[in-house]
C-alpha cells in the first residue's frame, strides 16, 4: 500500500518527491490472457475533487492548487470502483505536488485498487504547484507502453499507447486527454490516426472533449470504423449528465459485451466502462 506518510508534511520537507512521470515496472504483473474478456474503464478524476454543482468550479477552485484534507478519502472511493476493472485510463491526475500532498495519484490509485501495473504520463509540469498527468492501470503485462505528446498551441496534452498480446497482431489501447479547441483536436486525432493505422484491434479511451458523432464524422477518425457507446452515453457534468465527452471507441473486430456510463459521481465527469472480447481465433495467433 502506498505509504500515507507521504502526505503534506512529507511533501513540504521533500518537495522534489514524485515530480516526474513514472512507472511501476512489470516484475509482478501477470501475463496477458487473450481468451478472457477485458473490463475497461476511463475516468477523468479531476485531481480528486468531488464536484456536484457548477458553482463548485468557483467555490472549490482553490483545491486545484492547495492541499485538501478530504482528497485522500475521495481517492479511496475512486479506488473502490477501479478494482472492478482490468485496464483503466485516468485523466487529470496529479503526479505529486503541493495540492496532492506530493502523492503520485496514479500510483496511489493503483496500489489502493490492487492493480499491479501503473504508468504515469506527466504532461504539464508546474513544479511543486501541479503535475498534470494521465495514467494507465493494468492487471495484465503489456508488450510495451509508449507515451506521446499531442500537438497543440498550448503544450500539455498527451496520449499513452499500451500494446497487449501478440507482437504480430496486438491489441492496442490508446489513452488520451484531448484539448478543448476543435482545431487542436483535429491535429491531435490526425496524429493518433497515424499511430493506429497499421493495427486491426484498437481501443481509444479517454476524455476527448467532444461528442462521438462529431469525432467519428468530422475528424480524422471518420474513416477508422471505430464503434462508440450508444448515443445515451452522457458523462458530463456528473451531477446532470448532458454531454458525451468521455469515450471508449473500439475496432469492429472487438466484440462489445457490455458498455455503460457508471453512476459514480466522484468528479465532474462520470466514468465510462466497457467489456470487450477479442475476436474468435485470436488465441491461435499466440
From TrEMBL:
The record's annotation in Pfam families points to:
Exo_endo_phos (PF03372)
- Which GO BP annotation is one of this protein's? GPI anchor biosynthetic process
Q: Does the keyword Hydrolase apply?
A: yes
Per UniProt, the keywords (alphabetical) are: Endonuclease, Hydrolase, Nuclease
Q: Which InterPro entries match?
A: Endo/exonu/phosph_ase_sf, Endo/exonuclease/phosphatase, GPI-anchor_lipid_remodeler
Domain annotation Endonuclease/exonuclease/phosphatase: ranges? 41-269
Gene Ontology CC terms, in alphabetical order: membrane
Q: Which GO terms describe its molecular function?
A: endonuclease activity
Q: What is this protein called?
A: Endonuclease
What organism is the protein native to?
Marinobacter profundi
Amino acid at each position: 500500500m502506498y505509504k500515507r506518510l507521504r502526505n503534506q508534511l512529507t511533501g513540504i520537507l521533500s518537495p522534489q518527491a514524485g515530480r516526474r512521470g513514472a512507472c511501476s515496472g512489470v516484475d509482478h504483473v501477470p501475463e496477458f490472457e487473450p481468451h478472457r474478456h477485458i473490463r475497461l474503464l476511463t475516468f477523468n478524476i479531476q485531481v480528486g475533487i468531488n464536484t456536484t454543482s457548477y458553482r463548485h468550479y468557483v467555490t472549490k477552485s482553490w483545491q486545484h492548487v492547495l492541499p485538501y484534507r478530504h482528497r485522500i478519502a475521495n481517492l479511496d472511493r475512486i479506488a473502490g470502483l477501479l478494482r472492478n476493472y482490468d485496464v483503466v485510463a485516468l485523466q487529470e491526475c496529479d503526479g505529486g505536488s503541493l495540492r496532492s500532498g506530493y502523492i503520485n495519484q496514479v500510483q496511489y490509485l493503483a496500489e489502493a485498487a490492487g492493480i499491479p501495473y501503473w504508468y504515469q504520463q506527466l504532461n504539464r509540469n508546474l513544479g511543486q504547484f501541479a503535475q498534470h498527468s494521465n495514467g494507465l492501470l493494468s492487471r495484465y503485462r503489456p508488450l510495451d507502453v509508449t507515451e506521446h505528446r499531442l500537438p497543440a498551441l498550448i503544450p500539455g496534452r498527451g496520449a499513452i499507447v499500451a500494446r497487449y498480446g501478440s507482437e504480430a497482431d496486438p491489441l492496442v489501447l490508446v489513452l488520451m486527454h484531448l484539448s478543448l479547441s476543435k482545431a487542436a483536436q483535429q491535429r491531435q486525432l490526425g496524429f493518433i490516426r497515424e499511430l493506429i493505422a497499421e493495427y486491426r484491434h484498437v481501443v481509444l479511451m479517454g476524455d476527448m472533449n467532444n461528442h462521438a458523432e462529431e469525432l467519428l464524422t468530422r475528424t480524422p477518425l471518420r474513416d477508422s470504423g471505430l464503434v462508440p457507446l450508444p448515443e445515451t452515453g452522457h458523462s458530463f457534468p456528473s451531477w446532470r449528465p448532458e454531454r458525451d465527452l468521455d469515450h471508449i471507441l473500439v475496432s469492429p473486430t472487438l466484440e462489445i459485451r457490455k458498455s455503460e456510463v457508471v453512476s459514480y459521481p466522484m468528479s465532474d465527469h462520470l466514468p465510462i466502462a466497457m467489456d470487450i472480447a477479442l475476436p474468435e481465433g485470436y488465441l491461435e495467433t499466440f
